[in-house]
């Protein structure tokens, strides 16, 4: 990894007293020590990571903290979605208590979205709130999960069902860390990048259609543009609606379908979150077409572009299947956006024209899913 910082971009998340910076750049990790030091009362941080990230990158993290005299206490979890559990939450809190962390300490999430989501929840609960900093190491976590303060653990009854909004004080997104990420994980993160184009930025979607291969090849200019543009898009929505009373629900495009698949598959690693979201976005556009909301050729184009990057676009071929339409529809009803038994779905009138459809008819969704499952 290059030690030099290459044209870092700072994206501000404007939330009044809880505002913070996202530092995006190749080598941005080198800025962590200087940014952390003023936050600390004692020269130490607590680091939650997973075993893979620890083996690959803990040396680099410690190397940037040592020169400014910051010591680390490290806890590594088993990698993967199943670690985002109640039992691990208890384990993390017990570790923080047993190592004497107090409210003035900072918990650094060093890993992907699994680590970031559970670390944020632990930080919010620890003595009713300790400091929290995100150092995301996957594409998905750099463009999405490290920003905006959604924290959670999963339960068998649904994805991210237990959590709070708790903002980090800083996000350092070092794109150099992505060099060690497996191609499948890069693609999964790329699904959430495509999401921003589909929500409200058709020019970005067009750019991704032409430059997606360069993003996935981690060409420096392309990856930086993709990460920074995604962070700016998310920061703007979060600043407008921190706790998902309205417009933030757009960030859930593809997720009501996708989360149902993840839960039905019991969070097994053969379906990654980004893969479920990729499929979910295609299903949202196709369902829109079935309901006369989305032009069929637009839905077909979305499936073609998503599929061209190697992401799944067919429920019938999804690992972990065969899925049942009624089970998926039941899981969709558990969605956190549901109010009084009504489930909003994020649908789209076109590329970059997503909107909150307030009251989806789950019987018609189940019939639509049954049709998707019958495809050869
Ligand atoms: N809070 C939010 O707003 C938000 C947004 C999107 C997704 N999420 C959540 O994020 C999670 C998915 O995040 P993810 O895709 O980052 O998964 P992840 O955290 O499981 O990481 C994916 C895999 O990549 C490995 N890895 C991480 N960094 C690496 C690196 N630099 N080099 C090599 N391997 C590396 C990990 O060990 C893991 O095996 C899901 O739980 C999802 O619900 C949350
Ligand atoms: O930040 C948000 O808001 C999002 O919806 C981002 C999603 O990509 C992310 O997967 C989020 O965790 C889903 O939220 P949930 O509330 O449906 O669990
Ligand atoms: Zn997501």
Would you kindly provide a written description of the structure presented here, covering whatever features stand out?
The protein has 13 helices and eleven strands. It has 376 residues and is of the alpha/beta class. The protein folds into two domains: 6-181, Rossmann fold, CATH 3.40.50.1970; 213-373, Up-down Bundle (Dehydroquinate synthase-like, alpha domain), CATH 1.20.1090.10. The strands form four sheets. The protein has a four-stranded parallel beta sheet, sandwiched between helices. Strands 1-2-9 form a three-stranded mixed beta sheet. β3, α2 (51-65) and β4 (71-77) form a beta-alpha-beta unit. The radius of gyration is 20 Å and the shape is globular. Residues 50, 52-53, 56, 79-81, 84, 111-115, 117, 137-138, 140-141, 144-145, 148, 150, 160, 177, 180-181, 185, 188-189, 192, 273-274 line the site of nicotinamide-adenine-dinucleotide.
């Amino acid at each position: 990894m290059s030690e030099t910082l290459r044209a870092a971009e700072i994206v501000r998340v404007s939330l009044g007293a809880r505002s913070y910076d996202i530092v995006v750049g190749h080598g941005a990790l080198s800025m962590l020590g200087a940014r952390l030091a003023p936050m600390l009362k004692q020269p130490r941080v607590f680091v939650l990571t997973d075993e893979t990230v620890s083996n690959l990158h803990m040396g680099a993290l410690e190397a940037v903290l040592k020169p400014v005299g910051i010591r680390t206490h490290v806890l590594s979890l088993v990698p993967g979605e199943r670690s985002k559990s109640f039992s691990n939450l208890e384990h993390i809190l017990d570790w923080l208590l047993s190592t004497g962390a107090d409210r003035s300490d900072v918990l650094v999430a060093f890993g992907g979205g699994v680590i970031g989501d559970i670390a944020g929840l632990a930080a919010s609960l620890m003595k009713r709130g300790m400091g929290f900093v995100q150092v995301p190491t996957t594409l998905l976590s750099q463009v999405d999960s490290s920003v905006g303060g959604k924290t959670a653990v999963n339960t068998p009854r649904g994805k991210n069902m237990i959590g709070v909004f708790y903002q980090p004080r800083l996000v350092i997104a070092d794109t150099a860390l992505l060099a060690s990420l497996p191609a499948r994980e890069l693609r999964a993160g790329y699904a959430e990048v495509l999401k921003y184009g589909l929500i409200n930025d058709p020019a970005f979607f067009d750019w991704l259609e032409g430059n997606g291969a360069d993003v996935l090849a981690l060409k420096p200019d392309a990856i930086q543009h993709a990460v920074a543009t995604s962070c700016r898009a998310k920061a703007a929505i979060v600043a407008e609606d921190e706790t998902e009373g309205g417009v933030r629900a757009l960030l859930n495009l593809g997720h009501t379908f996708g989360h149902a698949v993840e839960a039905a598959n019991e969070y097994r690693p053969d379906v990654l979150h980004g893969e479920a979201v990729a499929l979910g976005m295609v299903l949202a556009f196709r369902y829109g077409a079935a309901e006369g909301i989305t032009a069929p050729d637009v839905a077909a184009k979305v499936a073609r572009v998503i599929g061209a990057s190697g992401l799944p676009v067919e429920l019938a071929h999804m690992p972990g299947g065969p899925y049942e339409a009624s089970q998926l529809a039941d899981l969709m009803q558990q969605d956190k956006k549901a109010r009084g038994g009504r489930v909003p779905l994020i649908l789209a009138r076109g590329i970059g024209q997503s909107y909150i459809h307030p009251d989806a008819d789950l019987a018609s969704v189940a019939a639509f899913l049954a049709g998707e499952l019958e495809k050869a």
